[in-house]
Automatic annotation (TrEMBL):
Compartment(s): Cytoplasm
Alphabetized UniProt keyword annotations: Cell cycle, Cell division, Cytoplasm, Septation
The protein, known as: Cell division protein ZapA
Gene: zapA
Assembly notes: Homodimer. Interacts with FtsZ.
Example of a GO biological process term: division septum assembly
Native organism: Peribacillus saganii
One Pfam match: ZapA
């Protein structure tokens, strides 16, 4: 894919600016950054003594946990749909 189809967006996550480059729309990139920022702030409010590195790791762990749960739910729904169709 050529570079001219990539979006370069500067976002703020937990008080730091990051330049994100990707093929998704600018609004999608901003939404992802906003969700990461929200999750970091949520975890930080419950654990104010965490340094940024540990906070980032906990945010990643929480996010992957949520992803796996949703993936499992989708798989279960697909199996149920297949049973209903058969």
């Amino acid at each position: 894919m050529s570079d001219d189809k990539k979006n370069r967006i500067t976002v703020d996550i937990f008080g730091q600016q990051y330049t994100i480059v990707g093929t998704e729309s600018s609004s999608h990139i901003r939404l992802v950054a906003s969700m990461v920022d929200d999750k970091m702030r949520e975890i930080s409010s419950k654990n104010p003594s965490l340094d940024t590195g540990k906070l980032a790791v906990l945010t990643a762990v929480n996010t992957v946990h949520d992803y796996i749960k949703l993936k499992d739910q989708i798989n279960q729904l697909e199996l149920e749909l297949k049973r209903v169709k058969d």
